[in-house]
Write a structure and sequence with these properties.
- The protein has helices at about 1-25, 30-55, 60-80, 85-115, 125-140, 150-175, 180-205, 210-230.
- The protein is mainly α.
- The chain has one domain.
- The two termini are about 25 Å apart.
């Protein structure tokens, strides 16, 4: 019970510290905003650990999810560090990229454990993945997003991000739409994708001063991470 109390406190604290971060980061990131962001990141890690201890879920799924969340935390530090060095920001993107790979492995492993005869990446899943990536490319072109030298890295990141979303939907559908899984795995993955999608507009679409878009980006991100961590309560494989 104590772990669930701490979990509830961590989630509640997010509703305080996320607005504090958004206030501190506007109009530009600084050390103060970095401190608030790392508190927010620490809170989703604490929430996930509480879910693990409360449910006694020390499975491979839990290990993979915690690893993915950890790379997200490191990515938060690197991508937000107040420096002009692009290498630091790129390193943050790579950290998120690796985190998504761990999420994909976690969802895929869970699906194979629950449904040994199923194929994680059958032709239908691949069609959906590349269709969604194609839609993303079209949206970027229509909005005249200029990626420059980042075009190829962003494309690969998008493929991995969409693959994470599709595998999350697959495990949810295979579990026959279990509400707890739908509200954690599927919704968490979807919110993460929506958050990352807005980054393209913020960084490359001239929307860096669009405050509502920034609020949407940060809110969906932290809520998505909280939900993905919470899925540890419901998926034991």
């Amino acid at each position: 019970m104590a772990f669930m109390i701490v979990y509830a406190l961590a989630v509640t604290a997010e509703f305080y510290f996320v607005p504090m971060f958004l206030k501190a980061v506007w109009p530009n990131k600084c050390m103060k905003s970095l401190k608030y962001k790392m508190v927010c990141s620490a809170l989703f890690m604490i929430a996930a650990l509480c879910c693990m201890f409360y449910s006694n879920n020390y499975s491979s799924y839990t290990a993979l999810m915690l690893t993915g969340l950890s790379f997200g935390l490191v990515g938060d530090l690197l991508i937000h560090y107040p420096t002009l060095k692009k290498a630091v920001t790129v390193s943050g993107g790579i950290s998120f990229f690796i985190g998504h790979i761990f999420y994909i492995i976690a969802f895929s492993l869970a699906m194979k454990n629950y449904f040994p005869q199923s194929k994680v990446f059958d032709y239908r899943a691949l069609i959906v993945i590349f269709a969604l990536v194609g839609i993303g490319v079209i949206i970027a072109a229509v909005n005249k997003i200029k990626l420059g030298i980042f075009a190829i890295p962003v494309l690969f990141y998008t493929i991995v991000l969409v693959t994470m979303l599709v595998t999350a939907f697959q495990i949810t559908i295979r579990l026959q739409g279990t509400l707890s899984v739908a509200l954690t795995v599927m919704l968490g993955a979807l919110l993460f994708v929506l958050s990352d999608a807005t980054i393209v507009f913020l960084m490359f679409g001239g929307q860096d001063k669009n405050r509502p878009l920034k609020v949407f980006n940060i809110t969906t991100y932290f809520l998505g991470q909280i939900l993905l961590g919470t899925s540890i309560l419901f998926i034991q494989s």
